Amino acid sequence: xxxTPRRPEPDETNERAALIFADKLLSHCxxxxxxxxxxxxxxxxxxxxxxxxxxxxxxxxxxxWGSRQPLKTTKKTLRSxxxxxxxxxxxxxxxxxIRFTRALGIPYIWIDSLCIIQDDRHDWLRESQKVARIFQNxxxxxxxxxxxxxxxxxxxxxxxxxxxxxxxxxxxxxxxxFVRAVPNHMDKWASNRxxxxxxxxLTRGWVLQERILSPRVLHFGSRELLWECNKESYCQxxxxxxxxxEFTKPALHAQKHSDIHGDMQHxxxxxxxxxxxLSLTRSSDKLPAIAGLASDVSSHRGGAQYLxxxxxxxxxxxxxxxxxxxxxxxxxxxxxxxxxxxxRPQMKPSSLTNEQSFKTISKIILKSDA
Length: 370
What we know:
The chain has helices spanning 15-32, 78-83, 92-104, 112-115, 121-128, 131-136, 205-213, 249-256, 261-276, 291-300, 303-312, and strands at residues 2-4, 37-38, 47-48, 58-62, 108-110, 140-143, 163-168, 174-180, 216-220, 225-229, 233-235, 317-318, 323-324, 338-339, 342-343. It is α+β, with helices and mostly antiparallel strands. It folds into 2 domains: 11-162 and 191-245, no CATH class; 258-370, no CATH class. The strands form 4 sheets. Strands 3-2-5-4-6-9-10-11 form an 8-stranded mixed beta sheet, sandwiched between helices. Strands 1-8-7 form a 3-stranded antiparallel beta sheet, with no helix packed on it. Pfam families: HET.
């Protein structure tokens, strides 16, 4: 059990509570930190917009597809979706995200299953390469972190789980504290600690780069709302998350922008190790689903050569649960040729500064058949 004098755990994560929580942190983040689909109004039908050179704020939705496939744009439905997408055809998570976007006053939302033509391989390959930039440039990412599929919606109702208890301080003053079970706060990012029931979204491979590259993420959790940007992270109960855990967004951001070259290598290896624990529906997505992170790393250190080394360097060691693909995906000496968890020896970032882990790779050409 834990006791906190801050505030009771929220009884629900409804739209009003989410707006109050998000508005305060959005204002603070935009003022203090350097950090589509036309949504219409009310419960009107929405429409797919070919944005072209359109310049406007937009929200991204990060969500689990689940075993029940969400509403999708296909070659057959593209023309009708450009005219309208009936409100009643949208799954609960899409509806909640669109309503929340409208309430924020943002005119557009990007949802992968609707904004990428799912049965057009050429469009999928072209647009999937833009996903990282789409999340990097969004106003906010709304993460349906507690939802295993589109039926779940964003909001949860649990009933009161905090019990008020009146205590007496050492100087004789009465004080009310709230007692609750110790929550599974989201500073425990390592995926092997995830409670899949609480955080199913965070077990998915594609979601890692969506979360890391987004400037701001609002998680709709199973117990409360959680906020993270590049500078800080908070949960709805008022706790500021510790940066001591290396896989928090602020800690990773600081590591990425460190002047120490070894810190960047350490950052990339942490990402690869974490990524290897996550699930992909299609093994052919192994490289596309981390391409945005690799490109982001290469833009900070070393350009194309660093990108090649990061993709194919053999330093992260294979764990016992790993196995090699029978169908070629990457060079056999690369972590990318392996399915399963990758582990590396623990070492301090400073020990990597002068490390010569890689041979020089002048050129690697891959053609995706995803």
